[in-house]
Design goal:
By secondary structure, the chain is of the alpha/beta class. It has a domain of about 130 residues: Rossmann fold (3-Layer(aba) Sandwich). The chain is built from three helices and nine strands. The strands form two sheets. Strands 4-3-2-5-6-7 form a six-stranded mixed beta sheet, with helices on both faces. A three-stranded antiparallel beta sheet has the order 1-9-8, with helices on one face. Strand 2, helix 2 and strand 3 form a beta-alpha-beta unit. Helix 1 crosses helix 2. The two termini are about 25 Å apart. About 30% of the residues are buried. The structure holds xanthosine-5'-monophosphate and magnesium ion. The site of magnesium ion has 3 residues, from loops. Pfam families: Pribosyltran. Its cofactor is Mg(2+). Its EC number is 2.4.2.8. Its main location: cytoplasm.
Amino acid sequence: MDEKDMGSDLKSVLITKQEIDDKLAELAARIDADYAGRDLLIVGVLKGAVMVMADLARALSHPVKMDWMAVSSYGSGTKSSGVVRILKDLDTDIAGKDVLVVEDIIDSGLTLSWLLTNLGSRGPASIAVCTLLRKPEAAKVAIDVKYVGFDIPNEFVVGYGLDYAEKYRNLPFVGTLAPHVYGG
Ligand code: XMP
Ligand code: MG
């Protein structure tokens, strides 16, 4: 799918594929430098982080290990509550490991904050966060996000892993939805 094929469901393209590629190359270079000479486990948070994980991992020169977690945040509509349930846990024991959590988006930061407490209790050597997108609300939460791709406006976005009712994850760019799609 490209930007010409998005039809009328999308309002606008917020971040192009090229901008994402360039940003991930930049973040990958920083991660390579920061973890030089160390083993690194990157943990993708399903399902949204699938695209970021795949492209970030390939942009790294570092031979990382990859694992996945799936969590579900209880909440109404598009707001998360911070009450989180693990749907799929890591296959890996992270005790003593350097861990980098890879996220698609941080909105309120509640999900990530819970996840960091949970993973932190397993005794990793270090834990850091990389996210492609961050919304303004997240800036109010005391989470140290070491690698941020883009700070974006407080709008619902889809594409590049992000969905609306499980659709649009496969768009190669990040866009905003037209109001008619979500009944606005
Ligand atoms: P919190 O608020 O806990 O939630 O940081 C983060 C999770 O909320 C989802 N989310 C979005 N999903 N477009 C999406 O497709 C968005 O604009 C959006 N904002 C938040 C997402 O699952 C993320 O992991
Ligand atoms: Mg997510």
